[in-house]
Amino acid sequence: MATTQDKKLPFGKIDLYSSRYFYACTLGGIIACGPTHTAVTPLDLVKCRRQVDPSIYKSNVSAWRSIFAKEGLRGVFFGWAPTLAGYSLQGAGKYGFYEVFKYWYGEQLFPNTNRTLVYLGASASAEFFADLALCPFEAIKVRMQTTLPPYAHNLRDGWKKVVAQDGIGGLYKGLYPLWARQIPYTMTKFATFEEAVNLIYRTLGGPKDSYSRLTQTGVSFAGGYLAGILCAIVSHPADVMVSKLNAERKAGEGAMTAVSRIYSKIGFVGLWNGLPVRIAMLGTLTGFQWLIYDSFKVFCGLPTTGGH
Fold first, then answer.
1. Does 7 map to a domain?
2. How does this protein sit in the membrane (predicted)?
3. Residue 308 is assigned to a structural domain of this protein
4. Is the CB of residue 186 less than 8 Å from the CB of residue 127?
5. Contact 185, 236 (CB under 8 A)
6. Separation of CA 76 from chain center
7. pTM of the predicted model, to two decimals?
8. Is 188 inside a domain boundary?
């Protein structure tokens, strides 16, 4: 029976691990990922272009000045539409499925398993499915952002061109490299976050429930920021290769053949182009994603993530 306090919650009382709980986590993932990735489109735009052609701009600031002078604010945020659509869908899968798999693996299938292994397995499983939703939009975004003049001027135009040239399969040409980038990234992001949050609470000296919800969401932001820095480093070589593949892959060329050809051209050092920008971008991005996600859970009357 619902209490007066439960009725004050926006969606009523939500039982942990119920279908409504997982739906709420999925919605939280959309809110956390779509807008935040879209907000850093200017960083992403310059990062992708410099990964493909390191000589295109002297610095990030000069890049934004040049783009703004020629195209205005719209040019600085070029590629925002596929970013918003793709990362909203990815956020739904990443956070929603993570909560599902963490419950299945940690509470149902392997209750006595080391918790870090549960975090790693749950995040890898979640990202596998999330990338199926992200891949078409990522392919269009990267082609739009890394070609001059642009391959397409908007999401609809890009979708039509890719399908016309390569069929629906063209939207998934970068799926394997995307998995190679995103799965290690997400495993690092979620496992590091969970461990960082636990460490912060141990350092503070009290159980999570003894702190206010404001403090708890602050811990989520700090844990997320630390996780973002580490996962940016872990996943960066694959991120460079995804950008290169979407921009330079030849018609009919196999994925591994393209990877080998591109690597022979850029070498090991080339895989690290744009890393400082990506660290700044993902540290901030990941911190705010966890802050938004856990704030939404608090808004729904649910506990924040980690620290148990």
1. no
2. Multi-pass membrane protein
3. no
4. yes
5. no
6. 20
7. 0.83
8. yes
